[in-house]
Structures are given as C-alpha cells and as structure tokens.
Design a protein that fits this description.
Layout lengths: L2 H16 L5 H11 L10 H8 L3 H12 L10 H11 L4 E2 H12 L5 H12 L5 E6 L2 E7 L6 H15 L2 E2 H12 L5 H8 L6 E2 L6 E3 L8 H13 L3 E2 H12 L5 H5 L6 H9 L4 E4 L3 E4 L12 H10 L4 E3 H10 L5 H10 L3 E5 L2 E4 L6 H9 L13 E2 L4 E7 L2 H6 L1 E3 L2 H4 L5 E5 L5 E4 L3 E3 L1 H7 L7 E7 L4 E6 L4
Helix pairs in contact: 1-2, 2-4, 3-4, 8-9
C-alpha cells in the first residue's frame, strides 16, 4: 500500500460513518480528490466539484461532515510514517525531483502538497520538509523540521524583497512575531530563515538578506534593468540609486504602507552585484548584460516620455514633452504628470526640464529647453509681470489638455514669486490652489464664466493678500 491508497482508505472509513451506504464510495472518492489524490491542481473545491458534477459548496459540505467523525475513526498511518522517514533523507531540490524520488511511497498521482495537507489536517502531523515557491520556476523542497511560523516568515521576507530588493532582518522578524501573536527568539528566526533556498546575507553585518535573484519578484532589480536599458550605457550606482529612490518614495505597496523601508546605497550595490543580468565594473559602474531581444518590451507612459526625450537629444521641457506625448500622442495628461514625477527612467535637471537618467546634457539643448519652460502646455512663451506691490500677472490660453484636466501650467518665473497654497478668487466664491509647477482651479473658474478651449485670459495673483483676479480676454 502507498499513501494515496491510505488516503482513500481513510476516506472510506469517514464516509461510512458520515453518509448513507449508497454514497459511501462516491464520497470517499471526493475525500480522496480533495486531499490531492488526483494531483494538486485537481484538489480545489471547484475542480473536485467539476469532477463529480456538483457545486463547490456541496463538496465543502461533504468533506466537512466527514471530518466531524475524525476523532472517533481508526486511521492508518503506516504509509505516512514511511514517507516521513524518507523525507528526512531528501536533499534540497525542486519539487518535481523530490516527488520522483518519493513516487513509490506517494502513489501514482498524489503530490507532496497533497501529502502535506493530509498530514496536517487529518493526522495533525507535518512532514519534515518545507515547500518554497520560486519566481518564474518550480517550487523548491527543503527538508528539515520547520516550525509552524515558517510560512509567515517566508511571506514577509518575500514581500520585503519584492518591495525593497532585500529583507531587513529586524523588520522581517518583527512582522513575523506580530502576525503569529508571540515572541520569537531572534537567533531561532535567523537559524530557520538561513535554511531557505537561495538565502544570502547582502552585507557583512548580516542585517539585510535575500533569497537569490530568482527567489522572489524584485522591484530594485527590475527598475535597475529599465534604467540601464533607457540609458543604453553603464551607469554609476549613485545615478541608479537616484532613480530607484525617486520611484520608491512615490510608490505605494503593501510593504510601503506598513513599513516604508528602503535600503541604503551600499545594500543596493550588494543586490545589483549579485544579479546575473548585471556586471559591476570599475567598482561602482553597472552594465546591463541582457540583449535587446532578452528585454521585456514595455509600452507605458514613461516609455513614451523617454522616446520623446530621445528625439530631443535626451532633454526637453515639460511643455515640449506635453506637446509630443499628450497633445500629439494622445496619452492621458494625468498619467503623463505621474510619469514625470516618479519614473526612475527620468530625472529633473531644472525647473520644468527633464532628461533621460544617465544621458549627458547638451548645454545648447538645455538653454533651448529652459526658454520654453512656462510657455503653457503648447510651449508658447509667457511674459510674467511683477508689479511693485507684489502682484504676479501673465496672459495665457486654455488648452485642450488644461480643459480636460482642470489645471494649467505655472510659469517658472511666476513660481519664484508665488508661495504654494490656496488663493481666493476675487469676485467669486471659489478657491485656486498653486502647486510648484501647476495651478488648479483657474480653468474651472474661467469655464464657469463661459471660457472654452483656446480662450485667452489674464491671471493676477497678490501673494500677500492670497487673492487672485481672473480676466477673460477673448471676445464673446
């Protein structure tokens, strides 16, 4: 007898006590399928229901009724005992290889995941091994007696690695303690996580660790590859780190909301040095080893902005980019603004001027881009007037983009004299909000007065009084 046959035998014992004789064999087969008898993928409630032409809720009710008789039923464990001993002799290996070694004890279709579930839920015992999922690869079997909290520790480690590139030991330990509701000895936690496949300390002080480059999704590596692909040249780690920091501090995630942890530059250097996709040269420069064919092509808003920058020697003003990406390219204006604010592929070199991260800056091109800053979304030059009493005034037009998004560009010269914040609209019960590079509320107020796309207007701010006056200059 093998474990699959032992599981079916248990199903028959429980079904005979829980159901009428007419359905004992069918319900024993349902028990068998639910605990992996036909393979792990066929053990879900939906898969078992499809197999026996019943709803998933009916499957759940049948198995639940059988489990009510578990404490009084005679259960065989001979085959499970043999499998337990065999698991202790395993080496760390992919789950498919481990199942091949254990196939005579498991049976033809029963898998290790099903055997684990059967041991925990039916026998109250755990096989002496742990199954760790791997990014883009088959799960890995790690033999050994693991504590019940290992799954929680693995989950938090992977979440931290996914968000921060590596897991900070103290934080991963603290989150695990919190979720299991009890204190863990830090040395015991350290001993257990060091047994996981791919485990490696990133720093000599043993404060940050990861599970290998393919052990978990990793935003640090993914964003670095994007940065180097856009730059098309090796970059110093400080340039890369600037892009990663720009992305991370504006990126929401389950970990960011909880901890907001981001590794220091020396940890990022250690992570990048361990990636087979990157080569560290001359100490701090990293070169991308992937060919263009190996890179996963992305066609997002940030990539559209980068293409617009490439067409302008790698540097352009926000107005020039808006005209190319939003007005001509049809990209949503809000998505465009978000890409400029957080994309690691882009860096801001001056007020309203952006460049591809890592590209050299051409002085003539920079001067040309600076001249177009504050020219409205269409790049038209705006003359800003500063009066003796502190009023800041200029004339602009309502563009299609401004009309759609209810915001307009703040000219660079005006931004130097206007503190951000709220301003009351003179003669109207409305509020205008000034941001470092844009204004919200002006377009809405003008549209309320009958303005349309293409309408010219004069805006006059009095910073001291926190008042703004709006004048429509277009003919009715």
């Amino acid at each position: 007898m093998n474990l699959a046959e032992e599981v079916l035998w248990t199903g028959r014992v429980l079904a005979s006590r829980a159901h009428s004789k007419a359905v004992v064999e069918r319900n024993a087969e349902i028990f068998f399928a639910r605990f992996g008898g036909h393979g792990d993928e066929a053990s879900t409630l939906q898969a078992v229901g499809n197999r026996f032409e019943m709803t998933r809720e009916r499957v759940r009710q049948i198995v639940e009724k059988q489990l009510e008789h578990l404490s009084h039923a005679p259960i065989r464990t001979d085959c499970f005992d043999q499998l337990e001993e065999a698991c202790r002799r395993l080496d760390a290996q992919p789950i498919e290889a481990a199942e091949g070694v254990l196939r005579p004890l498991l049976g033809r279709t029963l898998g290790l995941i099903g055997a684990l579930d059967y041991g925990i839920e039916i026998l109250g015992r755990r096989l002496p091994l742990h199954i760790v999922s791997r990014k883009d690869s088959t799960p890995f079997v790690v033999p050994g007696d693991y504590p019940d909290w290992i799954d929680t520790a693995v989950t938090h480690s992977k979440r931290l690695i996914r968000h921060s590139g590596a897991a900070q030991f103290t934080l991963a330990w603290a989150l695990t303690c919190r979720d299991i509701g009890s204190f863990l000895d830090p040395d015991e936690y350290r001993r257990v996580v060091q047994m996981l496949p791919g485990f490696d300390w990133i720093d000599e002080r043993e404060t940050w660790y990861w599970l290998g480059h393919d052990g978990s999704a990793n935003r640090i590596l993914a964003r670095t590859i994007e940065i180097l692909a856009a730059a098309a040249a090796p970059l110093d780690v400080e340039i890369i780190y600037g892009g990663l920091s720009r992305f991370s501090r504006n990126r929401e995630s389950d970990v960011a909301a909880e901890a907001g942890v981001f590794p220091p530059i020396e940890i990022v250097h250690g992570i990048l040095s361990r990636s087979p996709c990157l080569k560290c040269q001359q100490g701090d420069d990293f070169r991308l080893l992937l060919s263009p064919d190996e890179l996963k092509s992305k066609e997002g808003v940030a990539e559209a902005v980068v293409e617009a920058l490439r067409a302008r020697s790698g540097l352009a003003s926000r107005s020039e980019l808006y005209d190319a990406v939003v007005t001509s390219g049809g990209v949503n204006a809000v998505s465009f603004s978000v890409a400029l604010a957080i994309s690691p592929l882009i860096r801001q070199v001056d007020r309203g001027v952006f460049a591809i991260r890592g590209w050299p800056i051409s002085a003539p091109r920079l001067q040309e881009a600076q001249r177009s800053v504050g020219g409205g979304e269409r790049g038209r030059t705006v003359e800003v007037e500063i009066s003796d009493d502190g009023c800041v005034s200029w004339i602009a037009s309502i563009t299609e983009g401004a009309l759609a998004n209810r915001q307009t560009t703040l000219p660079a010269m005006a931004a130097r004299h206007l503190p951000p914040g709220q301003y009351r609209v003179e003669g109207m019960p409305r509020i205008v909000t000034v941001h470092p590079d844009r204004i919200q509320g002006v377009v809405g107020a003008l549209v309320k007065g009958g303005a349309v796309a293409g309408s010219d207007f004069r805006v006059t701010f009095h910073a001291g009084r926190r008042v703004v006056r709006l004048e429509s200059l277009s003919e009715d």
